[in-house]
Amino acid sequence: MSSETSKPPLWLAYTGLVLTPLFWAGNAVVAKGVVGEIPPLSMSFWRWVIALVILLPFGLPGVWRQRRLIRQHWLSILALATFSVAAFNSLLYFAAVTTTATNIALINATIPIMVALLAWILLGDRTRPIQALGIALAVLGILAVVARGDLAVLTGLQAQPGDLIMVLAVFSWGLFSVLLRRQAVPLPPLTFLTVQIAFGTVVILPFFLVDLLFFSGGFELNRSTAPPMMYFAIFPGILAYGFWNHGVHRIGPAKAAIFMYLTPVFASVLAGIFLGERLGLFHIVGGLLILAGLFLATRTTELRRKYR
């Protein structure tokens, strides 16, 4: 039997890549729906604790086998976990307090643009004019969403705090992506994910404890709060990571990146159904600018790889 026939069917990779943005969109919608009951730091901390408990039986053997390599690269792993598991998700949940799930998803969709921008600034990656145009269009799209279609919001510094926090979250994920290239850790995917979540949970812990003792007081685990926490851990956590990694491996990063365009689409539909959020003209204009920018930036990357 050839190696090609032994691989999982290609349709499984595409199915996973469609489900991944659906789960990410659901993350924003569910967070917005329960942020009044579950404080953001509690949401972030317990999400990863649950995910880690589920992963440990599968990931712990690899962690033990690679323990010397983990000790050797622990500072790099700590930095990567801080910007991804700890900062990005905590900031996203804080953003849900004062902005809509639709805005979260639209701003979140600009992650490839932020990665390209930071790679240009920090790594000196070559940026072609059409890619720079894509970045500019996406930035205009973000400004349209943050300003809610009113220039006075920007000039008067009246933007929703949640929108600005979400921009910071995207910046954090961009730093993670750039660091991942610069400080690659040679660990198997499951082992790396396990230690990444473990390190990130440790980073969140002191902030969670301060919030628990002096600010939010935590939350009560009951029938209305338990299902969202399980959703956060399993679907946008473990499954989305697994589906995304498999999809990138099977069809390549450039093609896989196109599926990120589905996140704001799914989020707007889910937010309309479950939260009663309505799309405004600024959502449409901003979303189109963001999608156009993403298309130009990722399409340029794909062509460059194809003809290099």
Automatic annotation (TrEMBL):
Protein origin, superkingdom: Bacteria
Short name of one Pfam family: EamA
Family indicated by similarity: Belongs to the EamA transporter family.
Membrane topology summary: Multi-pass membrane protein
Keywords for the protein's UniProt record, in alphabetical order: Membrane, Transmembrane, Transmembrane helix
Domain EamA as annotated: residue spans: 13-146, 161-298
PANTHER family: EAMA DOMAIN-CONTAINING PROTEIN (PTHR32322:SF2), INNER MEMBRANE TRANSPORTER (PTHR32322)
Lineage start: Bacteria, Pseudomonadati, Pseudomonadota, Gammaproteobacteria, Pseudomonadales
Protein name in the entry: DMT family transporter
Subcellular location(s) per record: Membrane
Record keyword Lyase present: no
InterPro entries to which the protein is assigned, alphabetical: AA-Vitamin_Transporters, EamA_dom, EmrE-like
Entry's transmembrane regions: 12-33, 45-63, 75-96, 102-123, 130-149, 161-180, 192-216, 228-244, 256-275, 281-298
Organism listed in the record: Marinobacter azerbaijanicus
